[in-house]
Amino acid sequence: MIGIFDSGIGGLTVVKAIMENLFGYDIIYFGDTARTPYGTKSSETVKKYALENTEFLLSKGAKIVVIACNTASSVATESVAENFDIPIFEVITPAVELSINTSHKACIGIIGTRATIKSGIYEKKIKEMNPHARVYSKACPLLVPLVEEGWLEKPETKMIVKKYLHPLKVRQIDTLILGCTHYPLLKNIIQKKIGKKVNVIDSSIAVASNVRAFLEKHQEVDALLGKKGRCGFFVSDVTDQFEKTATSMFKRDIHLEHVKI
Amino acid sequence: MIGIFDSGIGGLTVVKAIMENLFGYDIIYFGDTARTPYGTKSSETVKKYALENTEFLLSKGAKIVVIACNTASSVATESVAENFDIPIFEVITPAVELSINTSHKACIGIIGTRATIKSGIYEKKIKEMNPHARVYSKACPLLVPLVEEGWLEKPETKMIVKKYLHPLKVRQIDTLILGCTHYPLLKNIIQKKIGKKVNVIDSSIAVASNVRAFLEKHQEVDALLGKKGRCGFFVSDVTDQFEKTATSMFKRDIHLEHVKI
Predict the structure, then answer these.
(1) Does the CB of A84 have a partner CB in chain B at under 8 Å?
(2) Which of B179, B182, B91 is nearest to B139 (CA)?
(3) Could you give the 3-state DSSP secondary structure of residue A201?
(4) Predicted-complex ipTM score
(5) Strand A175-179 versus strand A256-258 pairing type
(6) Which residue blocks in chain B are alpha helix, DSSP H?
(7) DSSP string, A114-165
(8) Does A156 touch chain B (CB under 8 A)?
(9) Of B122, B83, B143, which Cα lies nearest the Cα of B201?
(10) What's the pTM?
(11) Does residue B94 contact residue B210 with C-beta atoms inside 8 Å?
């Protein structure tokens, strides 16, 4: 199975992108809804949670794991890779590669949670690939609660998005990385507020292509993965909101299993 | 010591009210910042956290405990009282009593997190004391993240508060209970949007009077409490935001000690 975890519901955008890119692969998802959000917590705490989540996915039969959470990807990927002997994917590198390959002016904006932006990981990775790139980042801590509330089209959400994007707009970025797996749900507003000429990069789509490319190259890993279209959703806390969002995203009833972690 | 816990920083409004009502009493505070917020989690999870937090405060010498979190007060007070043999205070009953005693029309509004409102506890307690009272409640899940971001005066915050209060305003309530310890930080905006004739009840002030009245009546408990003006702040995760908010609320540097829980 392909194991995927996130701090909550944001990682479902990654599940959806992987379902569309790798049709019929068995997927197991863990949303750490009891301990969400990760974006406001310290690195040590997020590392501990990421290790526990990976162990849970492995116990359920995952053969590769996607860290579908930018905060955990930025602070915990190394720890997870050191502790477990399976392929680990994170959502940052694929988005960075795509941004470098498609940006004409190498003038790139990044939005994310406070923890992701503070870690400076996008900036560091972009500069490693293109030392001349100009990179501007902006933490947008209110977007996750707005998405979790389902306020996807409200005027207040539009105003808050506009306010957050303003400093990036004045820098005339040509590419914007959505550095949080919740943000694709606000992609329309974000595209409108940053301007239609800016290429908005959705890390969930980028990581899904990356996993597919890896599996095409590593047939021995691909052979370990079930392809019966099964999908299991586990959460550390069952809330109404999670079921509502999952059901509306996948346009079918989603059964959530509760696990203690 | 007086032990006080909350899911995060909101309970500091209770610490402040207790400091002002019970001058010089030793206080120990625990903010469960690693597992915040509680308001979106299930009752079982919140109960487990409340028991762990109380145990921590007791291990540090607390002789009475104030549950300075509406969500935990509404779902976990009974569990905590059953498991520990010390006086336990919660923030709901004092606010309910104050609202019943001061409302002329017995037409009372309540705002809180989704978990608090869903529990129906305010409504139940108000009806027990006055079966003729009309009670209207509204969950305001975005207010906690707005407060935690320090967006106390932003136009978006004002719009969101106005939108949340609208259904209560049309009911012509004469009393509004702030059913979340974060909300006193937005009291000015709330008072303005609900109307200046509405009596806004701050549960942190109500619980502080309640604790004082209890100690005046129970000298044997009062004798157990230190009165050297010492104050210890513990958190399960140290974040910049927490230190900033604590420092600005108390207008002095606050030292936060990190504990694993």
Answers:
(1) no
(2) B179
(3) strand
(4) 0.77
(5) unpaired
(6) 12-21, 43-59, 70-83, 92-102, 114-119, 121-129, 143-148, 155-169, 187-194, 203-217, 219-222, 240-250
(7) HHHHHHTHHHHHHHHH-TT-EEEEEE-TTHHHHHHTT-SS-HHHHHHHHHHH
(8) yes
(9) B122
(10) 0.83
(11) yes
The token pair at B29 is 């505070």
Taking a C-beta distance cutoff of 8 angstroms, is the pair A83, A53 a contact? no
Cβ(A89)–Cβ(A210) under 8 Å? yes
Helices (H), A197-239: 203-217, 219-222
- From the number of C-beta atoms within 10 Å of its C-beta (0-12, 13-18, 19+), residue B34 rates as buried
Angle at B161 between CA B158 and CA B167, to 5 degrees: 135
- The type of residue at A135 is V
* Alpha carbon of A156: minimum distance to chain B alpha carbons (Å): 6
Distances (CA, A) of A94 to A9, A38, A173: 21, 21, 19
Q: Is B156 in contact with A151 (Cβ distance < 8 A)?
A: no
Interchain CB contact of B131 with A (< 8 Å): no
B179's tokens? 């059913």
Residues A137-170: b if buried by 16+ CB within 10 A, e if exposed:
bbbbbbbbbbbbbebeebebbbbbbbbbbeebbe
- Tokens linked to A54: 């990976």
**Sole residue written with tokens 């030392």:** A131
- In the structure encoding, which two tokens stand for residue A100, read together? 């470098």
Cα angle A148, A152, A157 (rounded to 5 degrees) comes to 95
Four-CA torsion A254, A260, B3, B8, nearest 10 degrees: -40
* CB-CB under 8 Å, B33 with A35: no
> Cα–Cα distance between B181 and B189 in angstroms, integer?
15
pLDDT in single tens digits along all 261 residues of chain A:
999 999 988 899 999 999 999 999 999 999 998 888 888 788 889 999 999 999 999 999 999 999 999 989 988 999 999 999 999 999 999 999 999 999 999 999 999 988 889 889 999 999 999 999 999 999 999 998 898 788 889 999 999 999 999 999 999 999 999 999 899 989 999 999 999 999 999 999 999 999 999 999 999 999 999 999 999 999 998 777 778 878 878 888 888 888 987
A251: left (phi over 0), alpha (psi -120 to 50) or beta: left
Asked whether the bond before B37 is cis by omega within 30 degrees of 0, the reply is yes
Phi, psi torsion values for B214, nearest 5 degrees: -60, -45
Are A116 and A74 in contact by the 8 Å Cβ rule? The answer is yes
A-chain CB neighbours of B35 within 8 Å are 34-35
Respond yes or no on whether the N-terminal peptide bond of residue A155 is cis (omega within 30° of 0).
no
B40 at interface of A, judged by CB pairs closer than 8 A = yes
